[in-house]
């Protein structure tokens, strides 16, 4: 049975950006404590702190060691947890803050994008028993050598859901600067609809495809442990969006969200022999070097030659290009090139499973805007197109307009 007495909450950077915001968060936590909940709170670094720390490192070196980067980035969350604990003390609530290492958030050793492997509940449970609100630094852990690791940008969501999983809670509240999960990023589309409910699979697809509102690993954990995520605003008390199993949803749309991912680059390897083993060699090498490959498209030309295009994170582009260079002779490729200014624009919805013509309609609206589609990939519940980055927002708007706005009327 899930533990209904413990409430796990996570507050993002904007929610704790200033002393006033930290006090407001403390007041909200107090209201849960007064209702009798044992509260465990995960916090992000204040405002744009993580960006500022990255910028600071870039003033020292263009190639920082990833271990030292994690050492640096983890400091942001240490500031916010201690201030939040102090704000709670000020309003008469007993609270204690912990870093990731203090509660043994064990991760793999993959700096800057580590994965959580286990969390000890011992210290948290002890503090809860002493009637303390527990404040935990998001986004950070330690590897088996006790090096500090971080979970990738936006990783505090994952810290919170992983804690909810080990504490056995049914719900996890994710407080952010928007009212919930919308049909598109409210910064791009003027009036998107708030989704009262969204399935784990749709949310996972949206998060992987660029919807920053939730870190994709957090949705994986939530699905695996059957935790309901309540994404809501820390600026008001309105209900937000519940991420839940699809079987329990009341409403289903053909397309529940449109999103753009702008942190990837495209690599094309041209004129390689069209024979077995080539793709295995290219992507085997990328995998061995821990390069995350997203979309892959192969096209065959004449004379048994093929071209392969694929996308990698921009931050991995140089490394991926060096690996391609090392394969050039072996594969007999005539060349390879990369393009940085791309965007992957996607539409996601469980209703696609039972609808016709969705892809055709998307390609049509993009062509009406003269937007060239460079790559296409589909899944059961999503369609993604690689386009030039300058059209990213326009593409999101026109796809949203054709599929979602008629349903809003
Ligand atoms: P936090 O610091 O609270 O973790 P983030 O900036 O990581 O906040 O995530 C919230 C942001 O996600 C919103 O401000 C919004 O611009 C963006 N976003 C992107 N896609 C969506 C979407 N479909 N629904 C809601 N917000 C979205
Ligand atoms: N502070 C980290 C970031 O900005 C983690 C988070 O906010 O979730 O990415
Ligand atoms: Mg976030």
Could you write a compact summary of the structure shown?
The chain is an alpha/beta fold. It is 35% helix and 27% strand.
Give an account of the 3D structure.
This protein is α/β, with parallel strands linked by helices. Helix content is 35%, strand content 27%. The chain folds into 2 domains: 6-177, Acetylglutamate kinase-like (Carbamate kinase, 3-Layer(aba) Sandwich), CATH 3.40.1160; 247-409, 2-Layer Sandwich (VC0802-like), CATH 3.30.2130.10. It has helices at 19-34, 49-60, 66-90, 122-129, 156-167, 200-208, 216-225, 278-288, 317-331, 358-368, 392-403, 405-408, and strands spanning 6-11, 38-43, 95-98, 105-107, 116-119, 133-137, 140-142, 148-150, 171-176, 197-199, 228-233, 241-244, 257-261, 264-273, 293-300, 305-313, 335-339, 342-348, 375-379, 382-388. The strands form 5 sheets. An 8-stranded mixed sheet has the order 3-6-2-1-9-11-12-10, sandwiched between helices. Strands 13-18-20-19 form a 4-stranded antiparallel sheet, sandwiched between helices. The chain has a 4-stranded antiparallel sheet with strand order 15-16-14-17, covered by helices on one side. The longest helix has 25 residues, at 66-90. It is globular, with a radius of gyration of 23 Å. The chain starts with 5 loop residues before the first strand and ends with a helix. Bound molecules: adenosine-5'-diphosphate (ADP), aspartic acid and magnesium ion (MG). Magnesium ion is lined by residues 12, 154, 157, 212.
């Amino acid at each position: 049975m899930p533990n209904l007495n413990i409430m796990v909450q996570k507050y993002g950077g904007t929610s704790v950006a200033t002393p006033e915001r930290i006090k407001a968060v403390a007041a909200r936590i107090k209201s849960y404590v007064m209702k009798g909940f044992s509260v465990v709170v995960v916090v992000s670094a204040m405002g744009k702190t993580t960006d500022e720390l990255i910028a600071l490192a870039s003033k020292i070196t263009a190639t920082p060691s990833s271990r030292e980067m994690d050492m640096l980035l983890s400091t942001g969350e240490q500031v916010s947890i201690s201030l939040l604990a102090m704000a709670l003390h000020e309003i008469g609530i007993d609270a204690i803050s912990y870093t990731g290492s203090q509660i043994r958030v064990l991760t793999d050793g993959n700096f800057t994008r580590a994965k959580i492997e286990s969390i000890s509940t011992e210290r948290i449970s002890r503090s809860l028993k002493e009637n303390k609100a527990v404040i935990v630094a998001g986004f950070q852990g330690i590897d088996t050598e006790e090096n500090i690791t971080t979970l990738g940008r936006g990783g505090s969501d994952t810290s919170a859901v992983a804690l909810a999983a080990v504490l056995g809670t049914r719900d996890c509240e994710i407080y952010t600067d928007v009212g919930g999960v919308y049909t598109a990023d409210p910064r791009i589309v003027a009036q998107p609809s708030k989704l009262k409910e969204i399935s784990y699979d749709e949310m996972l697809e949206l998060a992987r495809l660029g919807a920053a509102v939730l870190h994709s690993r957090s949705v994986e954990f939530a699905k695996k442990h059957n935790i309901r995520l309540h994404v809501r605003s820390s600026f008001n008390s309105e209900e937000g969006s519940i991420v839940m199993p699809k079987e329990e949803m009341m409403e289903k749309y053909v397309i529940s969200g449109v999103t753009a991912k702008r942190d990837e680059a495209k690599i094309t390897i041209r004129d390689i022999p069209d024979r077995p083993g080539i793709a295995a060699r290219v992507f085997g090498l990328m995998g061995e070097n821990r390069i995350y490959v997203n979309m892959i498209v192969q096209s065959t030309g004449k004379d048994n030659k093929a071209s392969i295009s694929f996308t990698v994170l921009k931050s991995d582009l140089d490394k991926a290009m060096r690996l391609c260079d090392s394969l050039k002779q072996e594969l007999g490729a005539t060349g390879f090139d990369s393009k940085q200014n791309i965007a992957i624009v996607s539409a996601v919805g469980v209703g696609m499973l039972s609808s016709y013509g969705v892809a055709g309609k998307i390609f049509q609206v993009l062509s009406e805007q003269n937007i060239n589609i460079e790559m296409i990939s589909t899944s059961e519940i999503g369609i993604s197109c690689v386009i030039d980055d300058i059209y990213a927002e326009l593409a999101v708007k026109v796809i949203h307009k054709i599929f979602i706005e008629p349903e809003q009327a």
